[in-house]
Amino acid sequence: MTLIAACTPDKNDTDSSTSSSTSSSSTDATGPTDATVSTDATDATASTDATDATDATDATASASSADPSDTMPGTTGTTGGEEDEFGFICVELVRAESEESDPFVGTASISLTLELDPCLRDFYTEAHPEYVSGPEGLAVLEEWRDRLCSEPVVGGLVSCEIDQIEFGLADDAPATLTVVYKVLDAAQVDGRMLLWGPAPLAELAGCEPKARLTTPLNLVGFPENGGPLWSAQSWDNPVGLVKSEASGCIKVQVAKAL
């Protein structure tokens, strides 16, 4: 089991940057010094050739001195002008119909565990294990530790901060990814969403990246101290597809823990 703690970004503080500069030079080609002295065809041809060379050189110089701001900025990883390579699965939380009062009152943290389908399991265990414990994985986490609680989505997100992200990749158990959220406002949980991830989008994964909610204890809310406050009671469409937008969410009905 590999743990990536979002609360220790100082372990990956080194920033790298690249810079580029564009330089250009122009060469002036000149023709004969006295084009009117000679009426010889050969001399006229030479004068014409020189003029053509001057025009070509000026065109080349003009192209090479174009405004650098017209070029695409260099990007790396999942940031900048390139599209994201990682995304999320959205999970909507609602009060179960059996609940007479708001079960989310007093919630200080939420633990959400989804089981990885074979596509994601193979991505992390075989194709790209560097995204589990290597610097690549830490860089992705550093970017998404804020984004998971701040992406603009219709319906709104639970006000939160990411406490930790934990992979469960043991050979003798289902592959999982657990995200623990610190809840900043328990009054703003019902009807809102959590974003689970980050996980690779289909283009990077090379397949359909999906994960699923499998048991009530895969989604649990905790008070400031003590045991579970509430858990999942039932859910619709338990399988979520990793996307860059909050659509096709797993919708979970929540009830107080017994």
Proportion of residues in extended strands: 25-35%
Largest sheet: 11 strands, mixed
Low-confidence sequence ranges = 1-82
Computed Rg? 29 Å
Cα(first) to Cα(last) distance is: 29 Å
Structural class: alpha+beta
**Helix/strand order:** EHEEHHHEEEHEEEEE
Total strand count, please?
A: 11
Average pLDDT taken over every residue: 78
Protein name: Lipoprotein
Organism: Nannocystis bainbridge
Explain how this protein is built.
With 258 residues, this protein is of the alpha+beta class. Helices cover 21% and strands 27% of the residues. It has 5 helices and 11 strands. Strands 1, 2, 3, 4, 5, 6, 7, 8, 9, 10 and 11 form an 11-stranded mixed β-sheet that branches. Strand 4 (160-168) and strand 5 form a beta hairpin.
Q: Can you tag this structure with a few keywords?
A:
single chain; 258 residues; alpha+beta; eleven-stranded mixed beta sheet; 11 strands; 27% strand; globular; disordered N terminus
Write the SSE topology:
Elements: E1 2-4, H1 41-64, E2 86-95, E3 109-116, H2 118-127, H3 130-133, H4 135-147, E4 160-168, E5 176-183, E6 193-200, H5 202-205, E7 210-212, E8 219-222, E9 230-236, E10 239-241, E11 250-256
Parallel strand pairs: 2-11
Antiparallel strand pairs: 1-4, 2-6, 3-5, 3-7, 3-8, 4-5, 7-10, 8-9, 9-11
